[in-house]
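Notes to self, intramembrane prenyl-peptidase Rce1:
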Amino acid sequence: MSSFPSIAMVSSYFSSTLEEPRISDPSAMEAAARVSGTVAVAACAAMAFFYVAILYSPTLILRLPPPASLDSFMIRRFACAAVSSAASVLACVLLLGLEKLDDLPSILGVLGIRRDHLWQAVAFPLLLTSFLYAGSFVSRSWKLISASIERSENSYGEDGICGQGCTDWVCAYARNVMAWRNYVVAPFTEELVFRACMIPLLLCGGFGTSSIIFFSPVFFSLAHINHFLELYYQQRYRFMKAFLIVGFQLGYTVIFGWYASFLFIRTGNLISPIVAHVFCNVMGLPLLSSPSTKGTATVATAAGVVGFLYLLFPATRPGLYNDLRDGCSCWHRYCSWS
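result:
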């Protein structure tokens, strides 16, 4: 499947560092960008708005009765997210003219949905992201060791109890609708819309790679602003408290959006930002320090950040994820289908 046009080919000029496209004729990029920049930005804004607005359509537009339970409420939202994601994919395909391609794998390849180099697209970004959580790993390991020492005097039959406890934990999570939201539905639908659909549009709208990495997460962040309305109007939080909570969340989503966009462009595979998204949702915010570890977590955090920055470009080198290196000409053909 490596012969299909993909986002990795679209962004091969990002091969080892943030640099300008290696195209001999500077006008080639402008001529290739069949989608105008205005249309690309407008489409991205519409996708972000629709992703949020459709969540409220069952009660505001369809006039359905309020859901009777949290499970039914979340399942309704899962269906809405699926519809908005499908609509965004369709809009992206039509705007880029991908329907003119002769097979489905080629279309999916442009959106970063590929089978080639799959283990690299999962393992390397996951390992890279885990460096940011070195302090969290140390703190959690410290707690587990301390708890194990406390239970050491009553360890008879502990293996069976522990095994049963792990099984019960997995089963409980499988039945938890919020776990499905945080670890399945949100990562997959958000990355599909905000990375796989928006980034190709912006690339073919003539935007540079670095501009897209720092600009496109604005849409991702604004898609979370509805949380302020929910906190302020529905949960009756004070204005300043709701503002601070959502402001912090928006800042965090922008930073993660930079990283996810970087991963998507560098690897050319949608699974890379998805696994990073799931991992970050599982771990929460990185732990900077912990009094219980006597400074060990702080040292681990600093070392993890250094390791992350050192490996950021080598671990995401496009050559690790796609066999085709000369992506500029492929990008030109991709954006100039007619």
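- The CA atoms of residues 57 and 63 lie 8 Å apart.
- Residues 34-147+189-335 form one domain.
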